[in-house]
Design brief:
The structure is a single chain. The longest helix has 36 residues, at 110-145. The termini are far apart. The chain has helices spanning 13-21, 110-145; strands at residues 2-9, 35-38, 49-53, 60-68, 72-79, 82-93, 96-106. α1 (13-21) crosses α2 (110-145). The chain has one domain (2-141): Alpha-D-Glucose-1,6-Bisphosphate, Chain A, domain 4. It is an alpha+beta fold. It has a seven-stranded antiparallel beta sheet, covered by helices on one side.
Length: 146
């Protein structure tokens, strides 16, 4: 199962990227995240791990498998027999940034739970993109006042 959504943000990638990659603060700007607990120190890097808690879902430990600083990161988890790969990327546009979130799911439980996984994932991705837009545009405004 593949889900992909994008949103245009009126802020440059250098403002949006720190919001997107600052995973431990996601709960501050999206209701789809209860908490993200980093399981290692330092900047996000390949191999970084984090415990993600979301409403209606079991806690999951994600591991970063790909990182292009300032552009994108991908992390993966396996939870309840379902493997998930979540991609997060930013790209410049003439008016700011396009942020894209992708989710790819595999596993036999999708035969029974696929409709629910798609429903909750679409809902959460929408919340996350809207929250990212709001937080990034506010950060751009704050930087402009400094």
């Amino acid at each position: 199962m593949h889900i992909e959504r994008s949103i245009d943000i009126a802020a440059p990638p250098e403002v949006v990227w720190p919001v997107m990659s600052g995973v431990e603060r996601w709960h501050e700007w999206t209701e789809s995240i209860t908490s993200v607990e980093r399981l290692d120190d330092g900047p996000l890097r390949v191999g970084s791990r984090a415990r993600v808690r979301q409403p209606l879902l079991r806690p999951a430990v994600f591991e970063v498998t790909r990182l292009d600083p300032g552009q994108q990161f991908t992390w993966t988890t396996t939870n309840g027999g379902i493997a998930a790969e979540a991609g997060h990327s930013v790209e410049p546009t003439p008016d700011g940034t396009r942020a894209t979130l992708t989710l790819d799911f595999r596993g036999w439980p999708l035969l029974l739970l696929g409709w629910w996984v798609r429903w909750i994932s679409n809902r959460y991705v929408t919340m996350e993109l809207n929250g990212l837009k709001q937080r990034s545009e506010a950060a751009r405004s704050e930087a402009g006042r400094s």
